[in-house]
Amino acid sequence: MYKTSHNQNRRIYATYVAIFALQTGQVQADLLDSLTVNGSLFSEPLHLGLSESHGHPGVALALDLELGQHFFVGATGYRATDSRAPNRSENYNLYIGTHWGAQDKTQFDLALIHRSYPGDFSKSWDYTELQFDTHFTDNFALSLTGSVDYYGVDETNSLGITGSYVHDFTDNLFSRVEGGTVQLDGKDIDAYEYITVGGGNRFDRLSFEILYKANNADENIAFSRPQIRDGFVASLNWLIY
After folding, report:
1. 79 vs 136, 197, 207, CA distance in Å?
2. What is the residue extent of each domain of the chain?
3. Residue 188 carries which DSSP code?
4. I want to staple 194 with a disulfide (CB 3.0 to 4.6 A). Which of 117, 123, 134, 215 is the partner?
5. Which residues sit opposite 213 in a β-bridge?
6. What architecture (CATH level 2) is domain 36-239?
7. Residues 41, 69 contacting (CB under 8 angstroms)
8. Residue 73 burial (CB count, 10 A)
9. pLDDT, tens digit, 9 for 90 and up, residues 20-54
10. Gyration radius (Cα) of the chain, Å
11. Are 182 and 192 in contact (CB under 8 A)?
12. Per-residue pLDDT tens for 74-86?
């Protein structure tokens, strides 16, 4: 009697283990299906129209994970070849956010982003941004980006307003225009405007893009902008997963 009961218990336990393994495997498969991994090579990294590496090239990686229909988390990072202070040539970002749609082809994204710069130990550039994006179509979007202690500068708040438009000439060939203004209210830190214009070509899992960037930002010792020169920026992007 004990032997029969013991075997039954083993079968029940094995059934539970099998069900749990199947469910766990399905969860892992769903997570993998929701994961996107992108890599890129760039001539210099840009954020809100300004270079962060004195115009030096580097490599970047981005991971984005969808959690259900409305939430997402992710991480991005880059490493450029520059090592001169002020050094923002190494950057890692973590973000969490939500998105929802109002009507056909209109989508809203709200994300909290923490930006870290571990490369220069003489100064902490770390800060947190709140970003709100509105995608009116697949080609046109507006973005609001706000932060306190912008680039680690105490009591310096920022508000960036950016508009971008992508025009598809063919399935592969496209042009891009992005322009914006960044308002800064810190001590001895001036607002500036910027624009990038260019285009590129899409392949199966690759895309190449070249842009010309220009801004009217002024040099500022307190802000220590690493690079404000105008010029061309190129990137090669590929979908890894």
Report:
1. 32, 24, 20
2. 1-33, 36-239
3. T
4. 215
5. 196, 231
6. Beta Barrel (2.40)
7. no
8. 14
9. 444 555 555 566 778 999 999 999 888 998 888 87
10. 23
11. yes
12. 999 999 987 666 6
